[in-house]
Amino acid sequence: MNLNSVKRVPQRDGYGQGLLALCAQRQDVVVLDADVAASTRTNWVKDQYPDHFYNVGISEQDLVGTAAGLALGGMIPYVSTYGVFLSGRAFDQMRTTVCYNNLKVRFGGAHAGISVGPDGATHQALEDIALARVLPHMTVIAPCDSEETRKAVIAAADIDGPVYFRFGREAVPVITDEATPFTIGKARLVRPGKDCAVFACGAMVYEALMAAQELAGRGIDLQVVDLHTIKPIDEEAILAAAHTCGAIVTAEEHQLAGGLFGAVAEVLSRKAPVPVEPVAVGDTFGESGAPEELMAAYGLSAAAIVRAVEACLAWKG
After folding, report:
1. How confident is the model at residue 3 (pLDDT cuts 50, 70, 90)?
2. SS3 56
3. What letter does residue 95 receive in the DSSP assignment?
4. Which phi and psi angles does 200 have, rounded to 5°?
5. What is the pLDDT of residues 208-218, one digit of tens each?
6. 243-282 as b/e, with b when 16 or more CB fall inside 10 Å?
7. Under a CB-based contact definition with an 8 Å cutoff, are residues 265 and 276 in contact?
8. Count of alpha carbons within 13 Å of 312, Cβ hemisphere only?
9. Spatial separation of the C-alpha atoms in residues 70 and 19, rounded to whole Å
10. Residues 60, 170, 207, 253: which is the catalytic one?
11. Is 287 part of the annotated catalytic residue set?
12. CB under 8 Å to 188, separation ≥6 — which residues?
């Protein structure tokens, strides 16, 4: 794959395509939105399958409560709004109404990460992985591109319990295709390597591949793993990388605290202590700006991954 010439597609397009596929096949799938259907691409369902679509308005707690009622009635609701509002404003309903009762509600956390750009800190979900993965019964998925998002949406229809997806607004490189394997709970080895392993999610998988390309020219063999399912985490893949490489880097478009780094470090600290370095947003809120400028400014880039790998290898010795 030529990483410099891959097409870019918004992950939210994959979310909308996955919902369309489900609504075409199943009568038990319904889609709920909080008056942002054009942004989340659920307007595609509204236009093609209006009997499957409900707009509850700008009322995130009602959105989740209504979805819980539909789930109790035997439906599989996909609720969709900005991830920062879903995980923040409706956290109590997610926790007590849905997760406590282990209901089959699917949460579509759109516009995740700092790359939302000009919308600024109030709209940039940088804490949603932490909030979602701490909830009992919750499955947490952060796909790497639009195609993997589509697959995740479809695959989630058939698993028990609640599911939280996070996906971005901006177009990101498409590095998977229809034939690329995807299994919830199973990490995907994207690039084998023996010197250090990068576990990445979301748009950071592409950045990890770019970092691997640069490091290869310097004789460093970097393993890249798409850890799209953050909960339940693939301990086997993490331990295999720890034993093969002896050094781990994590990369995520999320706060350092409570996200992918924490999930991976929890496994390593218990079962395979090796050097581990994070690439993530520090203890700060975001700001308004162009998506690509924000990603660079907050250290979410291939260059940042290269620096983390160098630090990890120095620690490894």
Report:
1. confident
2. coil
3. I
4. -130, 160
5. 999 999 999 99
6. eebbbbbbbbbbbbebbbbbbbbebbeeebebbbbbbbbe
7. yes
8. 26
9. 17
10. 60
11. no
12. 180, 181, 182, 225, 226, 228
247, HSE (Cβ side, Cα atoms, 13 Å)? 19
With 0-12 / 13-18 / 19 or more C-beta atoms within 10 angstroms meaning exposed / middle / buried, residue 137 is: middle
Query: Could you identify the residue written with the tokens 């290869």?
Result: 216
- Helix 204-216 with 302-316: angle, nearest 10 deg: 60
Quote the DSSP letter at residue 31.
E
pLDDT tens readout for residues 52-76: 999 999 999 999 999 999 999 999 9
Q: Would the pTM of this model clear 0.90, i.e. be above it?
A: yes
Rounded Cα distance between 164 and 228, Å, is 12
- Alpha-carbon distance of 202 to 206, in angstroms, equals 8
For 142, the token pair is 């952060």
- pLDDT tens digits, 87-107: 999 999 999 999 999 999 999
